[in-house]
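tool_call: predict_structure(chain=1)
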Amino acid sequence: MNWTLEVVPVPVADVDRAKEFYAGKCGFAVDLDQEVAPGIRIVQITPPGSRCSLTLIQGMPPFPGTREMAPGTLRGLQLCVTDIEGARGALMAAGVEVSPVMHVGATGWEEGKGETWNSFMTFADPDGNGWVVQEAPSELSDR
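tool_result:
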C-alpha cells in the first residue's frame, strides 16, 4: 500500500492575502476556492510540477485528536527546483523577500551555490510560515 503525501495545511490568518501570495507571487495554481460549509472556506493550491497541494483553510475546526496550528507556525517544508537562481529571481521579481542562495560548507551556512543537492534559499509567507527551497539536479520524474 502506498502512502502518498498529497495535501499540507498551511495555517494563515487571512485566506485572501495568503491566496494572493501563493498564487499571485509564487505562481502556484489555485485548484479549489470553495466554501464547503457555512463559514468554512478551503483554498487548495499546488506548486508548479508538484503532486502535493497546500490548503489554506478558514473556519474549519481541527481534526479530532489534533490541535489547530497558529498562523505562521509552519516551518521547514521544502520545495525543490532545478534552477535555484532562476527561482530566486522569479520570487524577487514578484516582490517576495528571499534569502541569498546558500550552501552548507566547512563552517556552516555559507553564501553561494554548493555542489549537487547543496544549494538552498528560504522565504516566508505574509504570516511567517517558513519555506526552504533546494536545488535538485533534475526533475523528480527523471530521478
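agent: DSSP finds two helices and nine strands in the chain. Proceeding to next step.
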